[in-house]
Amino acid sequence: MGSESKPLRIYMLPFFAQGHLIPLVNLARLVASKNQQVTIITTPSNAQTFDKTIQQDQAAGHHITVHIIQFPSTQLGLPPGVENLFSASDNQTAGKIAMAAHLLKPDIESFMKQNPPDVFIPDIMFTWSEQTSKDLRIPRLVFNPISIFDVCLIEAIKSHPEAFLSDSGPYHIPGLPHPLTLPIKPSPGFARVTESLVEAEKGSHGVIVNSFAELDEGYTEYYENLTGRRVWHVGPTSLMVENTKEKKQVNSNTNTNANDKHVSLAWLDTKEVGSVVYISFGSLCRLSNEQLKEIGFGIEASKHSFLWVVHGKEGEEDDNWLPKGFEERTKGENRGLLIKGWVPQALILDHPSIGGFLTHCGWNATVEAISSGVPMITMPGFGDQYYNEKLVTEVHCIGVEVGAAEWSMSPYDAKKTVVSRERIEKGVKSLMDSDGGGGEIRKRAREMKEKAWKAVQEGGSSQNCLTKLVDYLESVVVSKLGDQK
Ligand code: UDP
Questions:
Q1: For helices 219-227 and 148-159, angle between their N-to-C axes, nearest 10 degrees
Q2: Which pTM was predicted?
Q3: DSSP line for 213-270
Q4: pLDDT digits over 162-199, tens only?
Q5: What's the angle, vertex CA 237, arms to CA 58 and CA 407, rounded to 5?
Q6: CA distance 293 to 310
Q7: Residue of minimum CA distance from atom 7 in ligand 1
Q8: Active site residue 123
Q9: Which of 36, 100, 353, 397 is the most exposed place for a label (fewest CB within 10 A)?
Q10: How far apart are CA 180 and CA 172, in angstroms?
Q11: What protein family is recorded (predicted)?
């Protein structure tokens, strides 16, 4: 089967947040490169973040299009153009953007009724898609932007309440392929949210993840036994996409001209190999001024060079969230670069000068660091990131754990307690100092990168899985047609 048979019409529906949208758009491009007809359903502002890459794919002869649905801005009382969680800095705005995913149901259904696809692949956040697929009799697979490991860990936590009787950690979690410890008690609210999302996978033909089989070793089986659903590992999607292109381009979802070298990359060119710590807390986390200051003090005290990206401070004149004189001192010594705004993260992580990544452990950030062989210094911000930290520090041992001060469900709520400058300094030094003991972690990070690269080569696990996924979709459609005869 595969490339010779008639192309399938496949609709993909990404959720309105960069951590969801980037990997699902990558998946859309990958499936289109397998001679299928893919349509990405999205809203005007979200489309703008990736339309240039789609035009490039179209120019290369791939059948990929974007279908625009208007965002319900007026209904939600949101300013025009605010259509992605990246533009939100408070829970109310974020709640409205999440609500849009529900409000758009009638418009998306009406489009699907008029132009029925063969297969529907929505993000897990579109919980209504189960009923829609049933009503329209369209096979559905779900895209899950978090890791399968997280779902296993959440399930183990739920099944072992006795592990959490004490008021303070560490909490030892039994029942998983690896012994794991959580330093702080998870919020029951987060488990409920995740469970409701996993519920949304029900009735689907399986779940697609931005990961590779070797990274989830032991956990895929656990998940499949637990849910009875099949997992498709087609990641790291950013590497898979690179593999289908001849020349590496600037991060596919920034729409930046490949010839304009980003200021961060030009600055990294001036630094020694493996000498810089990249600091980023993803596209959503808005850390408190107190926490940002601790990071500033911690990185300065570590004496290591850094590239620090901060979101939510764009256009602000007042830098009172930085230690006094921080920028002058670190700039003067060419020791640090602070950027307020969007950066091409995948390319930064791939730059030879990067030696470590102080990260919030967003799933995409984690997979991107692994793809570049960059060891992590972990400091989770909210939600699934506390669990991703465990995969990094305790399962694969490719990072140093700084940890969090408390559990948070939201990227916007300031935590009452901050992670201290001393903890941050210690974490950075233990990875980056030549006598800090980070050698083994660095070696393991390189080995994991090798596995990721193998997975995306011809014959590798993710390439095979992508081919099998397309074959599977074809077989599902053929058997559905058979049923209708
Ligand atoms: N990202 C980027 N530049 C930025 C911030 C984020 O390219 O300045 C990308 C990053 O590479 C990743 C995604 O946005 O692909 C963020 O997803 P992740 O799961 O890491 O974290 P989230 O933002 O969802 O917390």
A1: 60
A2: 0.94
A3: TTTTTTHHHHHHHHH---EEE---HHHHHHHTSSS--S-TTT---TTS--HHHHHHHT
A4: 999 999 989 999 999 999 999 998 887 777 777 777 77
A5: 135
A6: 12
A7: 345
A8: yes
A9: 397
A10: 6
A11: Belongs to the UDP-glycosyltransferase family.
- Is the distance from CB of 208 to CB of 232 less than 8 angstroms? yes
Residue among 57, 62, 118, 123 flagged as catalytic: 123
> If you write DSSP's letter for every residue of 40-80 in order, what string do you get?
EEE-HHHHHTTHHHHHHHHHTT--EEEEE----HHHHT--T
Q: Is 483 exposed, middle or buried (0-12, 13-18, 19+ CB in 10 A)?
A: exposed
Those residues with Cβ within 8 angstroms of residue 397's Cβ, 6 or more apart along the chain or in another chain: 440, 441, 444
Tokens of 203: 């009735």
- The residues, any chain, with a CB within 8 Å of residue 146's CB and separated by 6 or more, are 194, 363, 384
Pick the range with the lowest mean pLDDT from 97-111, 112-126, 187-201, 401-415: 187-201
Ligand 1 site-directed mutation target among 237, 241, 283, 386, most atoms within 8 Å of CB:
283
- The CA distance from 99 to 236, in Å, is 29
- According to DSSP, the residues that pair with 399 across neighbouring strands are 376
**Nearest alpha-carbon partner for 71 in 104, 23, 37, 38:** 104
| Strand, coil or helix: 406 | coil
Mutate to test the pocket of ligand 1, among 15, 18, 349, 388 (most ligand atoms within 8 A of CB): 18
ipTM: 0.99
Peptide bond into 117 cis (omega under 30): no
pLDDT on residue 2: 47
Q: Which of 83, 464, 36, 423 is nearest to 240 (CA)?
A: 464
Residue 138 has pLDDT above 80, yes or no: yes
Strand 207-209 relative to strand 336-340, pairing: unpaired
Question: Is 20 labeled as catalytic in the residue annotation?
Answer: yes
The amino acid sitting at 126 is: F
Which amino acid residue places its CA nearest to atom 2 of ligand 1? Answer: 345
